[in-house]
TrEMBL record:
InterPro entries: AraC_E-bd, GyrI-like, SmbC-like. Residues 5-162 form the AraC effector-binding domain. Transmembrane segments: none annotated. This is GyrI-like domain-containing protein. It comes from the Archaea. The lineage of its organism: Archaea, Methanobacteriati, Methanobacteriota, Stenosarchaea group, Methanomicrobia. Pfam families: GyrI-like (PF06445). It comes from Methanospirillum hungatei.
Amino acid sequence: MKILKEPTIQDLEERYVAYVSYQGNYIGNPALFAELFGKLFGWGFQNQVMGPDTVMIAAYYDDPEVTPPEELTLDVCMSISKDVKGEGEIKTKNLPGGKYAVIGLELDGPEEYPASWEKIVEWVASHGLEIDISRASYEVYLNNPEEHPKKHHIVDICMAVR
């Protein structure tokens, strides 16, 4: 894991997204993420809603240290214009903005995601901030790992704080 951007506090704008929800144990399951993003990409391409400014996001609503694995909730999302409506299992909504602790990382692979969250949680605690569990926290994906020469994941981890 390599830090690309040191942690900072940022005021993130809300984003209108199309998303697919999942409830259950997603931890350590890259095949599940591939399946969910595959559904979202398929819909996005079919409906021609993806462009150069499209942002891919995973939104997390629970603390895996507290929530039983079968009750964990995840939305895989893509930013879209406000005039687009979902269909079938593809829904639309606004992801909330607000105050977030954000760190930019380059991960060697999906196995480093848990440690990346631990890193931002430690930073939040060391700076006297509280995690805001009333809002989702995010992974904002800044590349396609399949197109990276070493298959690295370039990501912003965004923890909701107050």
